[in-house]
Amino acid sequence: MHYLALLERKPGALEHARPLSGWQLPECFEVLKRRLEDELEADGKREYIRVLRLLEKHSQEEVARAIERGLAIRAHTRDALAQFLVPQEEWRATTFNLDGHSHLRLVKVESANLFAYRELRQAGGSQ
Questions:
Q1: What's the CA gap between 26 and 102, in Å, rounded?
Q2: Where are the domains of the chain?
Q3: Range in 28-32, 37-41, 113-117 the model is least confident about
């Protein structure tokens, strides 16, 4: 893994890097590499190495799943793939904690009147 940082500076050495010889990666890695090289030309190899560096913090299985998701929606960059590696908290599990904000318990928010938008349209707001 520590060799990947060096490869990022010298991406041309990727194919001939002895420390990586025999490294068995899932097929999606090779598909991603080809796509990046086709789309980004000279910068594609460097971007692929940046993706490989995700393996420094995440398991091969996690990165492979992120790559497969990215390939499915044509999101190929390291930054796009990294978004799939961020833990996603289910929105229902999130709550607003009122500790230290007891004054907010008194706030009442009225429900929106969606018919008001229809009235605006009828008044000439939109055709």
A1: 53
A2: 2-88
A3: 113-117
